[in-house]
Amino acid sequence: MQNKLKNIVVCKDCALVLNKPQTDYKHQFHCPRCNALIYKFGQDYQTVLLLAITSVILFFPAILLPILTLEVLDLKQTTTLVETLLIFFKSGYVAISIFITFIGVVVPFFMLLLILSILTPLKFGKNSKYVSKILKLYEHLLEWQMAEVYMISIVVAIIKLQKMATLHIGLGLYFFFGFLIMMFLTMSLFNPQDIWNEE
Amino acid sequence: MKYKNDKDLGLVLCMHCMKVLESKQKVCPKCNSKLKQRDEYSYLKTLSFSLVAIIFLFPANLLPMMEVTTLGVVEKSTIFDGILYFFQTKSYFIAIVIFIASIAVPIFKLAVLLYLLYVTRYNKISLAKNATKYYRIIKFIGKWSMLDIFVVALMIVMVQFGNLTNISAGLAAIAFTVVVISTMLATQSFDTRLLWDKD
């Protein structure tokens, strides 16, 4: 029975029992009945680690430098992302604003840190069971991080504000877009399933 | 050959590391996760989250989303007003993006959720493949409905000129957040394997 179990896989979307396919690094394997992805190999850990470190470095100028300056009559207002975090403690709509900054900026950054803390021990030869808890948290957050939505909403907000006031885009915004692009790259190349595929 | 699923063969799939085990086992030896063939509350969870979303959809669309105060004059606008504003100012692209993200996507998601519940409840296995496809679509587009909320929150932060111009969020912002979060939770708690189960 043990031996038999080694040679089968079960589709996670439709529970179909299949013979274990011969897999390599080039091909993906999909469920023949519901087309769910069953096997895929990601990029090697080294590449992902380097990309993750790059994104973490980009994060700091992105949140510290001004994203934009608004001018209404003689009044000027410069916003940085750190301020967007802090301003909520002053203004009325605390709950929603904290929640949004949280899923738009804090969670993506936290997930990069999670990737680092998953891959670093593995690189030093730790058992995959060792990172199981962190990996579970990472997979859970994957659906709740909204960095890409945040990026588009900044663009929409800028277009909206252009009609209300004079607006200068700051260096921070470019760093922030850079951070987001590097982050997407990291997350799309990192395939959590790889950690379990190696036996 | 007849299709067999994990229930037929007395197997259980670890949803974390995808290891196949005998159903009498309670904990996965490979990654220490709890094992369960199906979550028996999956249907109920999806149903209740969908109902919450349907109820909150009304205040989300009828109440004001954003309140712009210019020199003491308050201007309230609902989601739909916002879209109309963009149409009138000829920003058609942004208007379409916001229309898709905040009106089309939530309604489409709820329609699909109800369809999934219907297929599960009445065991329409012939529709299972179709339903799984729709499930994957709503899972993918889920977070994009947050766009409008993000825009409002960003504008609140960026525009703080005291008495001159000020932006604050309306009650619809909260209702809309509830709609998006509960549809996402409904999607997450739905198990597509229920569509394919014969009993």
From TrEMBL, chain B:
A single GO cellular-component term on record: plasma membrane
PANTHER family noted in UniProt: INTERMEMBRANE TRANSPORT PROTEIN PQIA, INTERMEMBRANE TRANSPORT PROTEIN PQIB-RELATED
Places the protein is found: Cell inner membrane
InterPro entries: PqiA-like, PqiA-PqiB_transport
Keyword Cell membrane (UniProt): yes
Entry keyword annotation includes Cell membrane: yes
A Pfam family per the record: PqiA
Transmembrane segments: 43-63, 92-119, 140-161, 167-186
Alphabetically ordered keywords of this record: Cell inner membrane, Cell membrane, Membrane, Transmembrane, Transmembrane helix
Chief location bin: membrane
Name of the protein in its database record: Paraquat-inducible protein A
Gene this chain is encoded by: pqiA1
